[in-house]
Amino acid sequence: MKHEQIYHDLRHRILDGEYAPGDGLEREVVLCERYGVSRPTLQKAIGRLKQDGMVHSRQGSGVFVNPAEFFLQNNFTTLSERYGGEEHLTSEVLSFACVPSAGLGQIFDIEPTDLLIHYRRLRRLNGIPWSLEDTYMPRNLFPTMDASVLLGSVISYIEGECGYRMNHDRVEVRPAVTDTSLASILQVEKGRPILRLSHYNYQVHNVLMQYTVEYTLEDSLGISFVR
Amino acid sequence: MKHEQIYHDLRHRILDGEYAPGDGLEREVVLCERYGVSRPTLQKAIGRLKQDGMVHSRQGSGVFVNPAEFFLQNNFTTLSERYGGEEHLTSEVLSFACVPSAGLGQIFDIEPTDLLIHYRRLRRLNGIPWSLEDTYMPRNLFPTMDASVLLGSVISYIEGECGYRMNHDRVEVRPAVTDTSLASILQVEKGRPILRLSHYNYQVHNVLMQYTVEYTLEDSLGISFVR
DNA sequence: CAGTGGTCTAGACCACCCC
DNA sequence: GGGTGGTCTAGACCACTGC
Question: Crossing angle, helix A39-51 and helix A28-35, to 10 degrees?
């Protein structure tokens, strides 16, 4: 998709410092010519940059780059999307098993006796324990899944080998405090405030492919709404 | 804006049960005729419905209404937007004063000695304490503001009487636990996990008009990402 | 008043679903 | 193969900015 490419290109140019904060981007017509697209397509790309807090625009004036502290670094996505590439993210698989879905059967819309794949991973950021993830995936959708998949990218297993297509995510945030076990795994004190994120990963037609509960030491998650 | 009207119309039709979950909406061309718009405009409206979790679409097939548990009720917005109209929301002004900006001067980009209007409100949902808000607004932008503004809608004061235009919001979520004073105000036990939301309300050009810190007993906030 | 971004249109082409 | 949504275009008109 053209607008997506343009979005990524402009985003990288901004992050690379090609435009200083406060600078205006080129006029829309110029950018349209550079990328060889029409204005609506360019504006779709600009719109995503606005949502990310990278730029703001003023009718009759121009599109301007925000100071870096306004940038929202893809928060609320999965950890690998938040930090992919930029920081040193490692994961340690703490467990991998097939379990009866039991109570979780409801959200997956399967029977309590049907099987779910469950794995728990500790994610470290630059070596420091950063978040704990419990992920569940229905066995019937992923019959070939085994522990070796976790060595690579789970996403490319789902989208590549299995041929499924992710359609949308839903994320719920809850406040929590570390209990004894969580505190010892994440190596923080007991009773520390912590965010608990539930990620629901859907195919089209609301078929749930992945359900992940993440406890993260991230101190804040941000989001912005452009009117 | 036409796409906004269409979004609200369809949203109300869905909430009113005009379409049952799983039902398909009319074909896009039909809806275009009904509303007298072109397809891109209609699709902008549909796109917002998808983000809200109200519908999903399938290329080559149609647009379908989701079960109600997928609906995201405008979370992450201000409390009055989250519950406006639907529930009984009341607020009690606990304090109103003009204070030196001090440390907050930085985020407003003003001097530490410049004045900020500060007010604290306890919001109740159906009579139950639900969230505590501390709001700061720069005195120089709102010289006519006094406590009487809080009796009506602060938004319409800002956009109507003052003639400013909100351009975008930024929200940050942090985990917290209630301390003694917060627990007594919100009438919950001390040490309870709670979400702390920072709302930043901007005019164009990133002029900060309002900064609000909200502690809310909301058990979870949701958001969805459509690819 | 000239130039900018904001919104919308009419129509095109494609990928995909389902008969 | 007929019909659906996904994407894009070229161009129009408007509101607003800033000289």
Answer: 110
Amino acid in position A179: D
The length of chain A in residues reads 227
Asked if A136 and A118 touch (Cβ cutoff 8 Å), the reply is: yes
According to DSSP, residue B24 is labeled B
Among candidates B174, B175, B198 on the partner chain, residue whose Cβ is nearest the Cβ of A176? B175
* Residue B197: Cβ within 10 Å count: 23
B56 CA to centre of own chain: 23
B205 touches chain A (CB under 8 A): yes
Nearest CB among A40, A171, A219 relative to B222 is that of: A171
Residue B43's pLDDT band (cuts 50, 70, 90): very high
Q: What is the model's pTM?
A: 0.90
Q: Any idea which nucleotide's C1' is nearest the CA of A26?
A: C4
Count each helix (H run) and each strand (E run) in chain A, helices first.
7, 9
Does A222 lie at the interface with B, CB-CB under 8 angstroms? yes
pLDDT at B15: 92
Distance from C-alpha of B25 to C-alpha of B57, rounded to nearest angstrom = 10
- pLDDT at position B87, please? 67
pLDDT at A169 over 90: no
